[in-house]
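One record is kept unedited as follows:
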Amino acid sequence: MSTREILTLQFGHYSNYVGAHFWNIHELSFDYTGTVKSEVNHDILYREGQTAQGQVTYTPRLLLADLIGSLKTLPASGGLLDESENVNLQWDTVERIAEPEHTKNEYLTDLDAETQEPIEEKQYNFEEEVKTWTDFLYPRLHSRTVNIVNKYHHGNENESFDISNAGRRLWKSDYGDTFSDNIRKYVEECDSMQGFHVNFDCTDGFSGLAMGCIEHLADEYTKPILSYPIIASHFPDNNPTTQEERDKSNLKDSTRLVNIALALEQLSDHATMFVPICTGEKGWRKPGNSRTFQYLDYNPELFYHSSAILAAAADTLSQKYRHKNNIFTMSDVCADMTGYGRKMAVASLGMPVAFNESGYLIDHLNNITKPIYSPITPSCKIGTDKIFQLITVRGIPESYLKAPLKEAKEQMNLPAYRCNTVQEMFELYFQANNFLSATNLTICTNPLELKTPFPRIFSDALNKYGFVKDYDRQERVESCAVIAGYHNGQFVADMLEKLHREVSRIKFSKLHKFGEEGLEAAEYKESLDRLLEFKDNYEDDFEL
């Protein structure tokens, strides 16, 4: 079986929060007993290697970027070995960044100690203790994975890395040379590479750094680039109380908005497909109200919470081209979703897909009056007609499909009762609800496993499998069914129109820091014009 490797690149603090949950979900699903059948090929995202001491390693095929001060207890070498052993590493030269000593929280301490008490049975205070993404990171990382930007310090307001052009300039420095060299080393290890995942904070300097990298990938490699420009769920300045704070917040909003607009315009040129994601409803100027998911209770001000939701979506969406029995590749996904020059798609998530534990999928789909998923792309209302969509459903057992014939009663009057698989039933559901649309469906047997340190944000009304309990009892949710999708259609034009309208209201003369970083007024105007031209790709009618 061909490996079909993917190299993942993460740029920015919030993207690394999403990444930490994403890699936790993967590594905590590994089975070392040989008793659980895995549906996915883990070698697609992971690499097997060997240390200088001959120890076999299995680490994410990953490069990430963050600012100095963001790692806390994680060493810049990735934490795979003790620091005393890292001196003899033969892999790469790792720049050592001196950081203040930090104390590991209880969870990380238990990981190091390999405590006899099962971690799943312990209660950790992650909501209070998580200050950065390394505070709940389970995997150990390859020595070349972590690439710290040492010119800017995390949390330093006086020298913030908040302008995309500053990231562009950083990519053209030695930092970009080192990063691109690490990309080359990973690519050379691959046998039949699928392409690149590029996830980045699109509201600050990491936007420009990521775009410099994406342009490099497009120039140097003939592989698909699937990118997630990510917007955090909350910013510290979102709740100003004084006029001075409001003025500062408005300026920061404008800065973030310009960074987003510049990033999306450039992605339309260089990415194969890109999907903005955010748990906020608005996203463009402020994250806005948080997206609601029935049976989820999360705090959007906690990166630890909101990033877990986006990570669950990314993990589910990628099942299609990581599945052992699926012939689809990332290239196929991008080709299916980006016809007519529509490189930007939107994402959706339904988590959990919850109905009564004694109920059936046929009744759930027949009685539901709301969409079975929520958009996780900002300022977006997903259309129902004339759309392309790739949907992945995971974790619904065939035994939940419909009642046995002798118990079916009213179910037998439904056309869906003729369906004999989860796949057939969802295909019928989308045929009935989407006019002149093309839906490609992937069904995965395994649910999303919700092992520590995934946040405990699920309703007490759910049983351990994520279905609604028939009677009240104490149970912790250990897994759940999930539906996630990519969608594309004319409705994307409305999103781009909102973005263009918002960013056009900002006077370039007020964007002093962008000018200082080399952005000319004419160049800025041309970028906005190209963004508007890109929107036109979604305006014309098309027939499937």
Remarks:
- The chain has two domains: 6-337, 346-492.
- The chain has 15 helices and 15 strands.
- Residues 243-270 form the longest helix (28 residues).
- The chain has a mean pLDDT of 92.
